[in-house]
Amino acid sequence: MALKAFDLVSVLDRVDLKIDCFEASGNDLYLGSDESIVVHYLVEERTHDGTGKIFYSTNKISQKNLGTKKTVVQLKTASALGRLMVLSDGNLYLLDADVLNTIGSGPKMKNVSVFCVNENPNTLDPFTVQLCVGKRRCIQICSLHEDRVSFLKELSTPEPINIAMDGNYVCVAGQGHYCVFNVESGSSQDLFPYDAASTYPHVKRIAKEEFLLAGPGNLGMFVTAAGISERPPIQWTEGISAVSYYHPYIITITNQFIRVYSLIDQQHKQTLSFSGGELVGNFDGQLYVAANSCVSCLMPQPWTMQVQTLMDSERVEEAVELAEHSGAVGMSQEQYHQLFRTLLQKAGFIKLAHGVYDQAQEYFLRGSVDVREVISLYPGLMPDSVEFMRAQPPLHHLADIAQAMHGDQTKIEEAKSFLSNYLLHLRTLGEPITYRMEVDTAIIKLHAEKKSANLLLFLDCGDIVCNLPECIRWLETHQQFSVLAKLYSAADPNVVWRYSDFVLDRNPLEGVRVFTETKATLDPSRVLQILQRYPEARLGFLHHLIDTKKLQDEKYHTELVLHYVDEAVRLINEGPTSVEQLEEVRGKLQDLLTSSCHYQPQPVLSRMQGTSLHVETAAVFGRYLPNYNSSLLLGAALKVVAITEEASRGSEDDIELASAIELLSVHAGDLEVSAVLALLPPTWSLSIVHHYLRAALRTSLHQSRIKRIQQTLVRSENLQQKFILYKLNKDIGPIPLAANRICCVCNRGFSSCEFTIYPNGVMAHPACAPNPSVCPLTGTVFQVSHDSATKPGTKKQFSR
Predict the structure, then answer these.
(1) What pTM was estimated for this model as a whole?
(2) Which member of 50, 109, 162, 795 has the lowest number of beta carbons within 10 Å of its beta carbon?
(3) In terms of domain of life, where is this protein from (predicted)?
(4) Using CA atoms, how far apart are residues 569 and 586, in angstroms rounded to an integer?
């Protein structure tokens, strides 16, 4: 099935003149004839009520006879200035774009052979359009104003036949060769020759600093401003009269046909019959073609329809590349990503059916396919307990892998090897697998069926989450008894529960390894319940959960902290005989209090109340102070201070007293100053708390000033935004964004509702038009008007 990228729709069936050139801007269409006549039509796109088909209505607005009786060879609009440039008999005229009246008394320039507009202007001069004009032995860079053309620079070159300009670069087709000029430096770069007798030198700007040239041997050559080619050439036909570019296609026209080529792979995609074709042009996303006396429009088909056509004919690579280069035109980013993922998934199943397994796996991974869609193609591998329905609409029309491989047993075995490798690759990605049980079950069944020695290695590699009854039956059926024994120890928790008490009764410290070293998935709460009779083993398992498995469940952290608090209190009560043990336990407790932030402080502080664990109490407050009610924390913190003060009387160098004072100083901003002063021990002097008072007052004053500044800034910003919104709604109202609108700089569509629009109707991506005050197409400079409501007639930048 051939790709259908464009439809041909008639615009003007017949006109009473010979069309030699044309130009369009928005709904305005201009025709130039061989009798020095220029005609202006208004073109409107409409939809037929009955059939829903698009058609065009035209209305002749004005006509101008230049009086030269020579052919009009070129037309170009400057929509920002409301002007139309006309080249006839070597004279460059400037007309009013609406009524076609001549601006001034005659032509603005003479002896002109060809001209072009800089499509990527680099000038900031307001109200001008940058031109490149070709004369007999030179090219001239000029600025077009509303009523005149001013000369800027001249570069010597043999008589130019065709030219195109982008930024500082001009690509010139001379007599028999191409070259690129750097306008800024004046240097030139020769490109390649062509046969002037058999080849018309087409020159077309494609992208920034890149041009398409008609080369020898009917080749369309892509050349950058640096003189190199970054794309393969296009092999097109003879007799091409015009070339245009509509992303991502190159359109050529001959006397009988319009041909469409892809910029992605440089291949021919579509041919449309068009008798007498002479002209083709892309005018801000509107494609027109013309013969001697008629004009038609090339209506682009939505890229989604083009992709579907390619997928229906199983041209997978072309479909994926077209979708990648088309972007989210006419849809949201989320819709585009979902559509593209579905496309990749369908591409994967097509490649799987063709036995191209590397590409199938690549598409499955990129498309994040539901792994059950793949497993379900292989009978018996999906667990019976899983109720799985394939996606709707379907991603493929395959019943199973046997049907896909037409019953060829060799190909079926290759497809099973692919599935095994694909599932193992998912396990090695290091990312969470949504359907882990289905994956592990399928891997075990596939390896058991092949009696693969790698199955033992798979069971050793990590936690196994499989449908155990089915895997046991499968292994027994295929007599894989050694693997079956390994599976029991790796995946059956009942083995652990059955023998845990037996081991713990004999050696609790060694017995806890039954739970810490198993590969089975165990419930920690159930393990702790079993270990209630074995305190040492329970303590070891808690350390395993927190230090090894890095669990952040606060109940495990709280229990471990409380254990060390109780142990420290017990050793304190025993007296001096347990000093060394007490220091060890308090060291572990302090390390745990400072390293963990997942324990509950209330039960810990409650258990410490009335004890001499002052440093530990201060550590709890120091870590959790910002998360507590300030009044409750204030009272608790000052109790610590008071207790510390009493315990440290008579000691000049007391660490605990210093810790209590530091607690107040570090968190001075979180405590109410008056409450702290009321509760401070009366024996404390000002020198003890002066650091706290200084920090508290500074923090309070700083927060007060910050709040005032924030309130003023928010109020000012709110007023500014309201004023801007008011001006925008008043001046422009809503801005429609048609699906076929493209950026004037990169010629790509708009993938989101973010764009920049200028008063002359030009639209661009914000990234392509970094200066919001300068039109990237015409170079016109506008002034943002929301800066001052008193400046009439200034320009506004509209961006959504």
Answers:
(1) 0.56
(2) 50
(3) Eukaryota
(4) 10
- Provide DSSP, 323-372: HHHH-STTS-HHHHHHHHHHHHHHHHHHHHHTT-HHHHHHHHHHTT--HH
DSSP states of 733-789: ------TT-B-TTT--B-SSS--EE-TTS-EE-TTT---TTB-TTT--B---STT-T
Distance from C-alpha of 210 to C-alpha of 203, rounded to nearest angstrom = 10
Convert the pLDDT of each residue in 272-283 to its tens digit: 999 999 999 999
Mean pLDDT to the nearest integer, 439-459: 86
> Could you tell me which of 615, 606, 612 has the C-alpha nearest to residue 660?
615
Instruction: Give the Cα-Cα-Cα angle 379, 381, 387 (nearest 5 degrees).
Output: 90
Nearest to 429 by CA among 380, 453, 462: 462
In angstroms, what CA-CA distances link 104 with 93, 94, 109, 116, 497?
9, 8, 12, 21, 100
Residue type, 255: N
Cβ(122)–Cβ(131) below 8 Å: no
Q: Is the pLDDT of residue 643 over 60?
A: no
In whole angstroms, give the CA distance from residue 381 to residue 448. Answer: 11
Contacts with 781 (C-beta within 8 Å, 6 or more apart), sequence order: 124, 125, 126, 127, 773, 774, 775
What are the backbone dihedrals phi and psi of residue 779, each rounded to the nearest 5 degrees, phi first?
80, 5
Residues 6+ apart with CB under 8 A from 426: 371, 433, 439
What residue type is 142 in one-letter code?
C
* Euclidean distance between CA atoms 417 and 756, whole angstroms: 53
Beta bridge partners of 133: 115, 140
Q: Which two tokens stand for residue 749?
A: 């569509």
For the chain, the maximum distance between any two Cα atoms, rounded to a whole number of angstroms, is 122
Q: How far apart are CA 417 and CA 358, in angstroms?
A: 12
Residues near 486 by beta carbon (within 8 Å), at least 6 away in sequence? 456, 459, 460
CA-based end-to-end distance of the chain: 40
Q: Are 136 and 113 in contact (CB under 8 A)?
A: yes
What integer is the mean pLDDT of 264-268?
A: 89
